[in-house]
Amino acid sequence: MPEGPEIRRVADRLGKVLAGRTIEDVWFAFDRLKPFEARLRGQKVTSVDSWGKALLTCFEDDHVIYSHNQLYGVWRIMRRGSEPAGKRSPRLRLSTATHSAWLMSASDISLWRREELDQHPFLSRLGPDLLTHDVSIDDVVARLQDARFMRRRLGALLLDQHFYAGIGNYLRSEILFFAGLHERYRPMDLDASQCRCLAEQVLEVTARAWRHAGVTNLKAWRDPMIEAGKPRERWRHAVFNRAAEPCHACATPIEKIMVSSRRLYFCPHCQADRS
């Protein structure tokens, strides 16, 4: 399933064709939303933002279309007048003078006023989005030290969307590796230097995945593999999905365990449990 960086990239693509432009035509597949087509028609889109795995398409009159791709949803951007091919079912279409953005297969779509978003049953439970909400290193440090989170093991905490929205399974393994921390540690077990390093990597690894379309491995480690003709799944990550392969930093074989019912990959040397 896509994680926060992938959804942010979708928001960026949609923003390029919708933001600042007038929506000349709106179509909803669901009868409950059809009355809102006329209300949004003729409005300008002010922004397209992501919050975790949700997308928020914001209009100048303060209405917001909330959509969640769930497992099968996907956005298609096409020249206006063209229709998406394939077996996916269209759920939403927003058309400018030149382009149409189609949401296919997703069913979690609703219309809100901006001031009501804090009452949304999903968004109200999310922590800040690392790529949308201007989160700083100091913000992450403070959140790690918050009483709600400081006693949680890192392997579980990083997947908790109450902590920060958008961190999924591959990001969890990569963040912990680059921070040099075993998943059993809790924030309260870390000294100030370790805590700040973890905060830095929460932001840096997430931003790297956004910039490079899901790639979290360092350039110095991935470039030789690319030049050698290795497939993307071999060089995309530093540890995730690399069980039994040598660590890029120390050559120790990467190990895989299950944490919170999800796969977690780590280097037993670089991330030794010294607790």
Automatic annotation (TrEMBL):
**An annotated GO BP:** base-excision repair
Q: Which GO terms describe its molecular function?
A: class I DNA-(apurinic or apyrimidinic site) endonuclease activity; damaged DNA binding; oxidized pyrimidine nucleobase lesion DNA N-glycosylase activity; zinc ion binding
Q: Coiled-coil segments, which residues?
A: none
> Which residue range or ranges hold the FPG-type domain?
238-272
Q: Which UniProt keywords apply?
A: DNA damage, DNA repair, DNA-binding, Endonuclease, Glycosidase, Hydrolase, Lyase, Metal-binding, Multifunctional enzyme, Nuclease, Zinc, Zinc-finger
Please identify the protein, giving its name as recorded: DNA-(apurinic or apyrimidinic site) lyase
InterPro entries membership: FPG_cat, FPG_N, H2TH_FPG, Ribosomal_uS13-like_H2TH, Znf_DNA_glyclase/AP_lyase, Znf_FPG/IleRS
Required cofactors, per record? Zn(2+)
Tell me if Plastid is a UniProt keyword of this record. no
**Family of this protein:** Belongs to the FPG family.
